[in-house]
Design brief:
By secondary structure, the protein is an alpha/beta fold. It has 19 helices and 24 strands. Strands 13, 14, 15, 16, 17, 18, 19, 21, 22, 23 and 24 form an eleven-stranded mixed β-sheet that branches. A seven-stranded parallel β-sheet has the order 5-6-4-7-8-3-12, sandwiched between helices.
């Protein structure tokens, strides 16, 4: 025992010597390059506030505990407080800190008073801080304290949480903020995050160290993600009694897209059982090379989660682990699944952020929540690399917003303190759009879709395309579930290097296209459409234009080249009129050309 703690002796920890070249003992054998660089920068500058932005799976916990070990070992701080988003993450932080020789109490609650002399610190949630910030302020003032703010963007979730965090930890000796997901654009500044003028003079967050997904992918720290998009025919009845039929992924308004998505996710329809069966086939293929690979279904609500678990039992013959956030045993279930070799887990939001289950390799997006923040959190559960060559596979409804998020996975974002424009600032619809954005960001369904106002009538699934490294890969025509064309993508090996994955996707697409061309020629059909009269229907043209526009958008995010310039360059290389009046052959040539650009740039 050493020193004085809560009026008693300090515990003797297993911290050992502090070296920038090594991680806190027990967290990793050594620091990764980015962790070592960030730690060196931190120790050289010794800032009171430090914001580290690192992609999910990169190892933020190891970095933070290495900082804590250094500061405790050098007596720069005496105590540690970890603030986490959820109760489960408190326990996870305590387990990681224990291995690093830094025992912290995850059961502490504000106002509890003294803690055992066995602990160096405590772990609390943002909600707990908001309830009683004064108690934590007193604890922070009593000792030289390092506060680790995990997923700091949660301090902006509500005014109460933000004010509570600021009040409680203002007197802290050091504050280390961590995040791995894109900040939102809102008007709530996040406590202890620095801002500087960005585009147009709008305040934008300033990170002290950034390690993005693209960098982590190049360093083999995270897995590449193969997105598999599924569309299909949907039908439902509205509150007014009208029956609506539409294609998921087709050109629709936001309201109709939301209703089509909800219809697809109805466990009584055919879409979600078909997608779950396809995902299980993919998991079986992955488990040929990674025997303990697991899958996760992210559901909208508890009833749907239980229904999906029943469907998985019928498909696999094995019970799925169901994790509900309000269950006392939720953390235990996650830990047991992580350590087992069970196939599937179904959760609502419990596993969306920060929860470490490294063996998750296949995911199914079965939730109506569709914000960029939640998407990044959810996909982050599948990217943690264990060995080289592992590929993550995520099954998505073919919804424009989700496909855009998938194409922007490598894009880095900062927190922008946006504000709605007034009518006198050049945008007469700004106020209305701001209200719409807030409504769409909410998790609750609109009144139009609540209760008996909405009834799903039926759904059918079909494979749409695969999205990998910003490029789309698919087959001509409709690809039915269970077909050989679908298995071209579901049967991809579970261990492949990124370049091998791109080559294989392209080869399978080209091989199938050549086979289809030969089949048409054998039947005496024209090998290629050569006039406007021979192109597909307006629905087919709409699908091709949407695919082309999606690829142009992904190219913009990758290169920064404006959409108009990209379209002009494609027209120059491929010929033909503007996309709005181009025929199917002309659109397909442009799609193939921009895919070639993406592959050449990646290689």
């Amino acid at each position: 025992m050493t020193g004085d703690a809560d009026g008693v002796a300090l515990p003797r920890t297993g911290l050992g010597p502090a070296w920038p070249e090594r991680a806190a003992w027990g967290t990793a054998q050594s620091l990764r390059a980015w962790q070592s660089a960030a730690l060196t920068d931190y120790l050289e500058r010794g800032p009171r506030d430090f914001l580290a932005v690192a992609t999910p799976g990169a190892g933020k916990t190891t970095f933070a505990l290495s900082v804590a070990a250094e500061l405790l070992g050098r007596r720069i701080v005496d105590r540690l407080i970890v603030v986490a988003p959820t109760e489960h993450l408190k326990t996870q932080w305590a387990a990681a800190a224990e291995k690093a020789g830094i025992p912290i109490d995850p059961s502490y609650s504000a106002g509890k008073g003294k803690i055992s002399s066995d602990f160096v610190g405590v772990a609390v949630t943002y909600a707990g801080v908001g309830v009683n910030p004064l108690a934590l302020r007193i604890r922070t003032e009593r000792f030289k304290t390092l506060v680790i703010l995990d997923e700091i963007h949660h301090a902006g979730d509500s005014l109460t949480w933000g004010e509570g965090v600021r009040e409680a930890f203002e007197p802290a000796a050091r504050r280390l903020a961590l995040t791995g997901t894109p900040f939102r654009s809102d008007v709530n500044p996040i406590p202890f995050v620095g801002y500087e003028p960005g585009a147009g003079g709008v305040p934008t967050s300033r990170a002290d160290y950034t390690y993005g997904y693209a960098e982590a992918l190049a360093d083999h720290v995270v897995r590449p993600v193969l997105f598999l998009a599924y569309s299909g025919a949907m039908s439902w009845r509205t509150r007014a009694g009208d029956e609506v039929a539409a294609d998921l992924g087709g050109p629709m308004t936001k309201d109709l897209t939301a209703q089509a998505l909800r219809t697809a996710l109805d466990p009584n329809g055919s879409w979600i059982p078909s997608v779950l069966a396809a995902a299980d086939k993919r998991l079986s293929e992955v488990r040929r090379h990674v025997p303990d690979a697991g899958g996760l279904v992210i559901a909208s609500d508890q009833d749907s989660a239980r229904a999906y678990a029943k469907l998985l039992k019928q498909i696999t013959g094995e019970s799925a682990t169901v994790v509900l956030s309000d269950e006392k045993a939720a953390s235990k279930k996650i830990s047991e699944f992580s350590e087992s070799d069970s196939r599937w887990m179904v959760a609502v939001r419990m596993v969306s952020e920060g929860v470490d289950v490294p063996r998750l390799s296949v995911g199914v997006w079965a939730t109506t929540t569709s914000t960029p923040l939640f998407f990044a959190q959810a996909v982050g559960r599948f990217v943690r690399a264990r060995t080289r060559g592992e590929i993550a596979s995520v099954f998505l409804p073919s919804v424009p917003g989700l496909l855009r998020f998938a194409g922007e996975l490598e894009m880095q974002r900062d927190h922008v303190l946006g504000r709605p424009k007034g009518a006198d600032e050049g945008d007469i619809f700004a106020a209305e759009e701001d209200l719409m954005a807030r409504a769409q960001a909410s998790e609750s369904a609109s009144s139009e879709l609540d209760g008996e106002s909405f009834e799903a009538l039926g759904s059918q699934a079909r494979f749409d395309h695969a999205l990998y490294d910003g490029a789309q890969f698919g087959h001509e025509g409709e690809v039915q579930v269970g077909s050989e064309e679908e298995m071209d993508f579901l049967g991809i090996p579970g261990l492949l290097e990124p370049d091998q994955m791109k080559d294989l996707l392209r080869k399978r697409q080209d091989d199938r296209r050549q086979a289809q061309r030969k089949a048409r020629e054998a039947l005496g059909a024209s090998p290629e459409p050569d006039s406007v009269a021979q192109v597909a229907t307006h629905e087919h043209l709409a699908v091709l234009r949407r695919e082309l526009n999606g690829l142009v958008g992904a190219w913009n995010h990758r290169t920064g080249q404006p959409h108009g310039i990209t379209h002009a360059a494609l027209r120059k290389e491929c010929g033909g009129p503007a996309a709005a009046v181009a025929n199917a052959d002309q659109l397909q040539k442009r799609i193939d050309r921009i895919r070639d650009w993406a592959l050449r740039q990646s290689s």
